[in-house]
Amino acid sequence: MIPKFLKKRIFKAPVTTGDTATTKDLDSDIRPVVPKPYSNAPINQLYRKLSGQMLDVAVKPKLLGELPEFDDDDNILRFYVLQDYSRSNSILIDLQTQEHNLPPALVGVQDIAHDIKENAAIIFLHHPHAKDSQLSPRLSRLVSAVLQYPELKVRLVPVSILWGRAPEKEDSLFKLLTADNWQDPSITKQLFNIGVMGRDTFVQFHPPQDLRTLINDSLKGDGVGFSVFDSVASDLKDSLAQDTLLEDRLLKDTLLTEGALEDSELTANILNNSAVKNSNSITNEVDEAPSYAMVAAADGNRELVRSLQQQLNIYLDKQRASMLGPDLSDRRNLVDKLVYSPAIKNAIEAEAEASGISVREARALAKGYANEMVNDYSHSIVRGFYKFLTWLWTQLYDGVEVHHFERVRELAADYELVYVPCHRSHVDYLLLSYVIYKRGLSIPYVAAGDNLDVPVLGPLLRGAVAFYIRRSFRGNALYTAVLREYMHTLITRNTPIEYFIEGGRSRSGRLLPPKMGMLAMTVHSQLRHSEKPVVFIPTYIGYERIMEGGTYVGELKGKPKESESLIGLLKVGRKIERIFGNVHLSFGTPLHLSDFMQKFDVPANSLPADRTDTPLDDKASAMVDNIGVKVMQHINKAAVITPVSLLSLVLLSAPKSALDEDICREQIALYQGLAQQLPYSADTVITDMSPQQIIDYGIKLKLIERRPHILGDIIQIAGKQAALLSYFRNNILHVFILLSFLSALVARNGRIERSRLNSIAEQLYPFLQSELFLYYPAHGLTETLNKKVDSLLANGLIVELSDGMLSVPETNSKCYQQLQVLATPVEQSLERYFMTLALLAQQGSGNLTENEVVDLCHLLGQRLSVLYADDIPDFFDRALFTSFISALTRLDYLQKDEETGILTFDQRIDLIAHHAKYVLSPDMMQILQQVASLNEEEIAHAITEISNKKQRKFGRKR
Predict the structure, then answer these.
(1) Model pLDDT for residues 443-493, shown as the tens digit of each residue
(2) What is the pTM of this model?
(3) 902 - beta bridge partners?
(4) Less crowded by CB within 10 Å, the N or C end of the chain?
(5) β-bridge partners, 658
């Protein structure tokens, strides 16, 4: 039941008969306070103006995130919410609101109709005048007004201000005085902030929140710590139902001024004015919505304000954590914590027993592993990298384009972020961290291969973003345990993490098959213990020229990979003056681990917290595999169709890689139109350049050239650039591959039934899906194919005849030539498939291992590319043959012996090869058949040479 003192204030409140109430009409223990008029307004305005001008000279803040969007309603009152009281913060926010045309912060807010008269539009959650259990005076007044007047609209805009961004507690007194960390700023520190860190200040306006909605959610129990109101509401409902004296009785709230609020006794007497019509209507009110009557008492109001203030504090703390990152201990202490953690103690004991060494020796070994990998974060190094990279990007690139970043910002406060980008270049490490840091979020710790731990560069990267792991540690149980525990430590401390799920840089421009090791460790950590839910951020990185382009081409052609070194770094420095165009980062749709856990029925906290060696069960392992594939698909969905990739796709599909300029423009426009009419994904970004601008841009980058001719200029690929352009074509090949496949089926056959076309496409689709990580599900493929066919029909590229027959357009028409160009990209994939199947059929079941098939196909592809194709090395990329063999095995066309690796199969592979004749020309099929015909002696010689080459390569690595 309601306490007597609350009942007295609620039920014995005097009834007012007019718009005003005299002092004697109010309860004797409540004194009315008349708001004081603003005093010295001109002086205050002059003070603010002068202070603003001085601060504007010293401080140049950087705005993070998007500006808040307000409703076009003049009756809405808007207030900015800051955590800590500070004059400099007030003036800074006022300057920002003026600069960005937002409602001013240091201008009085008056609403006479609702008894609101505030001298500024800023709420400090920690105000020096808050004497009533540290409640914010202005927030208390606004809550009271909202409860009293149902029509009143108030929007709160939380604001974060960071003076510097050092997440760790530095040892330097200078850094303690300047860099923003988790301590509230003193006056001395604030003066240092303005003088020293003024140029490194960040401001972020968060989305506006409706105060009435916050109150309603709190009273419904949706907020934090509002169970007290549930019990009060229940008691109030029972009492009101029995008390008929409440009819037409009103509770009058007294409005307190800022000066009066310094008296905590008056703050406690804020009452709500709620009209009570009758007991039945109030009962219904309690049933359907939060009843404002239940917070009429001063104690209730005080609890409500305290809880709202707590919610706002928690919200701003989370936003601050997403920008600063967690407090970080020094590296030495972290290494010791790892080594002496219960999980590593168990691993050390197991290692000592298995290896026959003492526990002390095993512990020293574990400590050595930890020292190898643990990051040594230094904010000074990060700031140095930021300034250096800001200069470097302006030298290398015309611009860094970022897409869909706001979806990451929305998740940063409440989730453990795991960035999983594709891997194109060594620049990826720095570029992604730079973009994240510049936009105000805490930079992730990046899992980097220990091949990058070279003199000079290695320690710098370790001090900024990198923690190093060995390229291979299979069979080393103790190293695995230390790495798992370090990952678990980072995740439980809410440190953002980044790793490249492909395991290495793509040399062909396609995505590589995912490596599940780091992904499995992330899942393992979450199943041991979770502080925040994990969300994966698939990230697409696209370049228009790439530093390692020449190296990639050489490696695909068989040259040994060059080891990273300081000399190699200096060689890269010579390329700084070259033109590299734009670089694009696109953040894909986030993948929530909890969704996968629900899908695969994997319970949370299902692994022991003190062990790293507990294996994942079958469900969890299947979940990891599924997450890996979904990450790759979402990276491709976030692809950016750049001018260079479009040019590459068009010209590499043309005979001799050249087109009349008019035809080239039309083909580019066709591809742009197809991508826009039927988007690959809502996340896919398409260049807005015109076809002519795209051509001129390619010439500027020296990737293509214009050859003047009296009958019309010709656009062709510049000398020795074809192999490099194939890299950028492959970046977006997945977007157009189904259109190309369907075009090829029609173009190579002249006419084909629509049902037959769908049947062939469904048979071969799983292999294209595996190679290019297409996201279309196989069970709904027919609908997707029909949409693609309809798009081709709408653009006149194919013609529909009677009885569901599809045909090519007139052979001398523009559309026919466009169809031939569009049909070309899929041919390389189908040629690889047919050559692999021909080799298997020619050698017979049970004669070759998986590795031997991949190696032989690689050699055959090299030979075919030199003799009959354009010597484009991505045709014989080993990863593509591995992907095809894996797809054949997964679909049970091939069976692999687990012990020997020998592949067996039946006549069904002939059926797959049979479908190739609908796309490939008879001449090409004959060439492929001939190239794949090897006798036993040639097979044995090739396998021996490949084995010797691998041994030499392994010897160099060691």
Answers:
(1) 999 999 888 888 888 888 888 888 999 988 888 999 999 999 999 999 998
(2) 0.77
(3) 849
(4) C
(5) 716
